[in-house]
Specification:
The protein is α+β, with helices and mostly antiparallel strands. The chain is 23% helix and 28% strand. The strands form 2 sheets. Strands 1, 2, 3, 4, 5, 6, 7, 8, 9 and 10 form a 10-stranded mixed β-sheet that branches. The longest helix has 14 residues.
Amino acid sequence: MVLQRIVKPKTQQGKRFLEKREPKLTENDKQTMFIKGGNTSVTVSQVLTELYMLKKHNSVSYKRKNILRPFEDETPLEFFAKKTDASLFLFGSHNKKRPNNLVLGRFFDFHILDMIELGLEKFVSMADFHGGKCSEGTKPCLMFAGETFEQDVEYRRLKNLFIDFFRGPVVTQVRLAGLEHVILITAAAGGKILLRNYRVLLKKSGSRTPRVELEEIGPSLDLVIRRTKLASDDLYKRALKQPKTIKPKKKKNVSHDAFGSKLGNIHMQKQNLDKLQTRKMKGLKTQKRKSSAGTTEGQSSAKKSKEVDSQ
């Protein structure tokens, strides 16, 4: 039996640090590590730098070289993850057997969950694209093209990994002018994966709705899958499990149609239609008719009865 040592904080700063690491109903934004291998090329270093710029607010970049082999020994990566409280990582290396190599992965409970090795076949830097760039920290719009992302298991898991990597902070509303960065990931023929970055331009169209154009801003990457290490179905299902308290309670007799309209079922008791109160209309009321002499029929009959009494 292994006893786990309970660490008690001695300062308020240490207490806040441990409270930040504790499990929460709504977790913090995921932190990403960018790690250089023992031997890296100029291309791999530039890729790590430019992808770090896209995720600068929730990421940590290790400048020194680290001699790691993620597929052979996962312990150093798990140590870095626990040290920085990171959930994702991107590791870059370069050697004769696997040139321009990128390893994209994520953790669950500070242990490796998924890991996919990607080979970089073509890279175009941001500096090679002329024009404006997106604002720093902009939440991107992710788009995926290709049936392979839905049919193949590895590509389906890679799609989910890309969403985790690029999604950024969770927001409830996005204004139209703030949607200026689009990341398009395409599963092309020959097993290639094309990653492109675009800036959204809203131009005048003569109407209230603007005309939308896309301008490529880089970086541009052509990738290919080399090796994968995916979690088992049971572990993956456990990683996706959410506490019941944060799930919205289902309301009875309430549903929504395809357009988002709220529909409800109302259960009523049997009604007695004989006592049903109908709408009172003016045309159904008895009205006093005016005679041609200007007096009503009711007034003329009353005068006649008075004359008879006097006689």
